[in-house]
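Q: Structure tokens for this one, please.
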Amino acid sequence: MYRYLEHEADIGIEGIGISLEEAFTEGAKAMFNVMCEINTVKSKVPVKLFCSARDIETLFVEFLNELLGKAGIENMLFSKFEITIMNSRGHLELLGKAYGEKLDQNKHGIKTEVKAATYSGLRVKKRDTKYYVRCVLDI
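A: Here is the predicted structure, written as tokens:
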């Protein structure tokens, strides 16, 4: 599950999950749904992901920006994400795959260009049994 948050000029996203990994992937889905009609993107081609950070909040922004970079380089859109977050020698690492297909303007219902995930509104928290991750996207 994901949702959008009010923001003056850009757009806030929030991913919600029963694990940090699920919350991160829901945040990624929210970001790609800002960019296109995510339900039209088939998860056919896997692309490897890796990023690291000193804290979980920064890792969320790094993850989203890694996805944006891969999407731009590969000219792809993604709709499915499999990730693992681990602690490695004092910092956090995210390994995984994003699944998608080549961008097709006629098929994917292109919406808004996302330039970057930002540190504005950045928050990662656990409430009851769910994790919530949020940030603002620069559009």
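A few notes: The two ends are 22 Å apart (CA to CA). Strands lie at 2-5, 11-17, 45-53, 76-88, 91-102, 116-117, 123-127, 130-138.
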